[in-house]
Design goal:
Elements: E1 5-10, E2 13-18, H1 29-42, E3 50-55, H2 66-75, H3 80-91, E4 96-100, E5 103-105, H4 107-110, E6 117-121, E7 125-127, H5 141-149, H6 151-160, E8 164-165, H7 166-172, E9 177-179, H8 184-196, H9 200-210, H10 213-230, H11 234-245
Parallel strand pairs: 2-3, 3-4, 4-6, 5-7, 6-9
Antiparallel strand pairs: 1-2, 7-8
Helix pairs in contact: 1-3, 2-11, 3-10, 5-6, 5-10
Amino acid sequence: MTDHIKVLKSEGVLTLAFDRPEKKNAITDAMYAVMADQLEAAETDTQIRTILIRSEGDLFTSGNDVSEFAMAAMSGTGLVNVARFIAALGKATKPIVAAVQGKAVGVGTTLLLHCDHVIVADDVQLTTPFVNLALVPEAASTILLTARIGHARAFTMFALGEAVGAADALAWGLANQVVARDALDGVAADFAQRLAKQPLGALVATKTLMRDAAAIQRQMEAEGAVFAAQIKSPEAQEAFMAFAQRRAPNFGQFA
């Protein structure tokens, strides 16, 4: 384990697990660095045929560590490894499986759009509360989520940040299957092993044909530019200040 990310390589499967359950698996910049390093290295590691992303504890991830994120935003320093991780997801050519339980907040949901097979527990809650923090979505989710579930559903997920449960996640195409919580890890590991036994060249070629990697990278860059501008806005500063003061933000003061 390195910086709250468990890394395991076994029988062709690279497993990356969020392991910070005492902090609701909130993702720090150091955790993003480990994930980015592993995804980048997996592209040229001939021993890795499939990637499995999972987590320890009762939930998948509460998203960015907001305390760290807010401090970086207010100081103007930024978090460099977030962008590295997101870019690595967009460029990944090997199949990615995700096992998701409990809450998957923000990037915890948008990263699933880059996974090729998503297995969720029956208690899952997918949320994308970027606007709630006066920010905009990332990871090319503004096009990927819209393509997956349609504009109306995607806009509501982004605009209000309300949770999508297991039944809707399956019906809308955000998940491939729903399983009981105690079966999740085993089902996901079995599926990753099945993929690892498939001809890798054909899998990579198929995934490459199914995804417009150049368009995904362009959208990530466009989102990143707007995100960088929005994070400096009075709205975002109010959101972070309200978080630090443990109060509801007052966005009505801004035109």
